[in-house]
């Protein structure tokens, strides 16, 4: 195994890049931009006021297929909570080593390999967004728009335990039902009230009943709030719930039923409003993606292991635009989103070699047909 130098990765790991730390996220982007400039990339900056800027690095464009590499600059750790980089013989530790500064580093090293071999890079671009860890509420529109210009996408979230790449991710939506009732004294004027809490309980049961575990569809009411006190009929309530699904058919089924539940008054005198929506649509395996996998297997003389995950990433966004997308090209790691986050040195080395091979074949035109 080639010994990898992680000094550059250490530099960005020690930069606090919490999503809400705009200064830190932008600094991370500036460091990365310096490395990309050395490879001949042009940078398009999408400036943002309250979050970090999104960065789109474009290579020289020529006739033929175009490949998008996709990553994110932010992490989940507020300043002074976890900012240490360390390593031992087998692992490196620190915020973002697998989620996903480490993945971005794999992409960078592979691009360096291509640049060294060919002297330039064509038709391989790199998008780094700044708000993935909070749901990509801003960047998802940009990612969806830019994705339409590409024929393939590789996303650099962490690999699976056995180096799996990700071919499917559940779609996710977050919703809120605001319920208006009518307050009344629970002792003297009970019948004059319209109990928002009671309405919420009926809606909660109806929502949870939409879960279909056989189809891996879940509806989870994760938070309920409402009421003033024990002696008052509740005038307001709110349900916060999440939908996760593996197919577009299930998404549409549940959304149709949710609208019916919201429109139904179980308690006379209440009124309900639905807020929220689909955050990232499903990454559903399809034929063109399978062809992408098979082409990699043939060209690199390997047999990629694949998996589906319940969690979401920006791969969902690009895949929902019809672009053959594979996720999990970063190193294997664990403990992500905790102070025990680590990534495997062996996996780093293997991923850099494999991604370099794929990008080399792409640069030689092997994905044109």
TrEMBL record:
SUPFAM superfamilies associated with the record: Bacterial exopeptidase dimerisation domain, Zn-dependent exopeptidases
Domain Peptidase M20 dimerisation: residue ranges: 167-269
CDD domains the record matches: M20_CPDG2 (cd03885)
InterPro entries: ArgE/DapE_CS (IPR001261), Bact_exopeptidase_dim_dom (IPR036264), Pept_M20_glutamate_carboxypep (IPR017150), Peptidase_M20 (IPR002933), Peptidase_M20_dimer (IPR011650), Peptidase_M20A (IPR050072)
Active-site positions on this chain: 74, 132
Protein name from the UniProt record: Acetylornithine deacetylase/Succinyl-diaminopimelate desuccinylase and related deacylases
Keywords from the UniProt entry: Hydrolase, Metal-binding, Zinc
Superkingdom: Bacteria
